[in-house]
Predict the structure.
Amino acid sequence: MAAANTKEISDLARDIRLQVLLTIKNAGMGHIGGDFSVTDILATLFSAVLKVDPKNPNKIDRDRLILSKGHAAVALYSVLALRGFFPIDDLKTFAKPLSSLNGHPNRNKVPGVESNTGPLGHGFPIAVGTAIGSQLNNNQSRTFVILGDGELQEGSNWEAAMFAGHRKLTNLIAVIDHNGFQQGSPISRTNDLSPLDKKFESFGWEVRVINGHDYQSLLSAFTDAQTKPRVVIAQTVKGKGVDFMENKAEWHHKVPSAEQYEAALLQLSKQ
């Protein structure tokens, strides 16, 4: 896909958030807080980084993006639709009977989805295997995997991190949507993950700690040359873009009322 400037990325991020808001409001379900925190990461990847083709989504040398935090499926569906992988009108079917757009992404049903995710802790190991496969095939594709805070408490992630460091997977970037929350509360009250940077460094990873809503920082983290697998600890805001949702645990899966929808729509439309 063609490179984009930060204004184009910002415009796509706004449109993703608007689609997420409408889709979750219509479906009466979803994970809007995590969708909004990961939006700028997805917008940057799909605007300016990923080597993918909506007309040929299974091209052998494509880059791979695995959304390990699969509960943020609506954000992924929104960017895929906006980039032409399937019609935008299909978003109206989200979570309806027989819809291909389930609450968690299914690669057998949705073009552009690289792996079924939902049970947390699965996407990272799959991404490591994908990156190894690309190495063995000697192609130039890269693998990106997006993880959430809560799922980093799963031991399978640390096994994957250790093995990726051992294999020196320079074609792998893990992105942590580090919004500081999991389903019911801040991670500081459940299982504090700090120091994340030191943990990954000990497994042989290069670490970038950035503002996960700053497009230039994201672009650099995703495109600079690598000599090791890289983890991007993207410090984000749960519910980013709507003031009454930001940093509120209840917006992990709360659905906006009619009044809240209108208020959020007004805020997002001005961005």
